[in-house]
Q: What sequence folds into this?
């Protein structure tokens, strides 16, 4: 009796048998022209997972590649033994080019051989403080500044030139101080460099300017008072004589300067001489500038004419119509005109 062979246990699972009997996957064939090829290993967007696109896979691959290259390209921390020689060589090169002394060259080597940046910072701080101490010692050892006679004489000369200028806006305050300061800063007259930055020393110069201008103004006022002492106007000094006494040879006598002096004498004669004389002169000048309308000389001619009528006409030898001002005074006038 013939017995039939029992089925193999391998195929006892119907599902497994169906899977085994299923045809094999077809071999890969290139897509028709115009259709993109599908790269193995990348997911395609499906209806179940539309976000899983090739772009996301590309991003993932790029980030992996970037991270890998970043790790590979990041430099290793150089040891002190590899970096110190190059720093030392650079230090020696710069030291020789700067012509440092041998002992200073050793300090450069020590600085370059420092193991850490913190050590170099400490050395640098010590050197900075050392330089600071040396500078302070130099400043302390400098001789105390005093206004010399040469400087004092020039301050007085410039101060007088400013108060004799026909372009001065007022006879007190910054209008008289600043031009003298600028002239001193330009020509120096033996002043130490940068003295104007030293508040204490520059104050001594300022005090000299103030002193001389105060003395000059007082002298001008005394001369005006003396010019009209006589009760007889015929005995008064003419404006030319009065102006010449004020200038004292510091500049030439011009019509413009005589007109300025005439204005001063007018204020003196028509006010209280002992009170607010110079402020009143300043007010009169400001009023004239305001009403001049481009003709500054018109008001001055008015006061000059009135002065000649009240105190005497200038003689023929006192003519100053065509006088050319001195170079020094002209420089001051030009500076005040700007």
A:
């Amino acid at each position: 009796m013939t017995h039939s062979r029992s089925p193999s246990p391998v195929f006892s699972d119907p599902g497994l048998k169906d899977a085994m009997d299923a045809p094999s996957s077809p071999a890969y064939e290139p897509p028709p022209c115009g259709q993109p090829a599908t790269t193995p290993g990348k997911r395609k967007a499906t209806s179940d997972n539309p976000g899983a696109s090739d772009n996301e896979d590309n991003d993932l691959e790029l980030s992996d590649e970037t991270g890998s290259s970043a790790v590979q390209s990041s430099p290793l921390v150089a040891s002190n033994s590899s970096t110190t020689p190059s720093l030392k060589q650079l230090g020696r090169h710069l030291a020789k080019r700067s012509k440092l002394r041998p002992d200073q060259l050793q300090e450069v080597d020590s600085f370059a051989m420092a193991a850490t940046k913190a050590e170099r910072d400490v050395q640098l701080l010590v050197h900075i403080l050392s330089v600071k101490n040396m500078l302070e010692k130099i400043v302390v050892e400098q001789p105390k500044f005093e206004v010399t006679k040469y400087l004092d004489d020039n301050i007085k000369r410039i101060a007088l030139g400013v108060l004799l200028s026909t372009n001065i806006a007022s006879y007190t305050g910054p209008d008289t101080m600043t031009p003298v300061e600028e002239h001193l800063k330009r020509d120096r007259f033996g002043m130490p460099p940068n003295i104007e930055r030293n508040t204490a020393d520059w104050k001594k110069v300022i005090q000299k300017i103030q002193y001389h201008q105060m003395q000059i103004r007082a002298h001008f006022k005394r001369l005006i008072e003396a010019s009209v002492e006589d009760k007889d106007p015929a005995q008064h000094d003419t404006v030319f004589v009065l102006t010449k006494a004020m200038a004292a040879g510091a500049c030439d006598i011009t019509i413009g300067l005589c007109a300025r002096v005439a204005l001063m004498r007018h204020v003196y004669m028509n006010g209280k001489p002992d009170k607010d004389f110079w402020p009143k002169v300043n007010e009169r000048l400001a009023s004239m500038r305001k009403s001049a309308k481009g003709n500054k000389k018109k008001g001055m001619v008015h006061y000059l004419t009135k002065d000649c009528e009240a105190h005497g006409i200038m003689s023929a030898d006192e003519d100053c119509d065509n006088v050319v001002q001195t170079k020094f005074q002209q420089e001051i006038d030009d500076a005040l005109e700007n």
Remarks:
- The chain has 13 helices and no strands.
- Residues 228 and 236 are 5 Å apart (CA to CA).
- The first helix runs from residue 14 to 21.
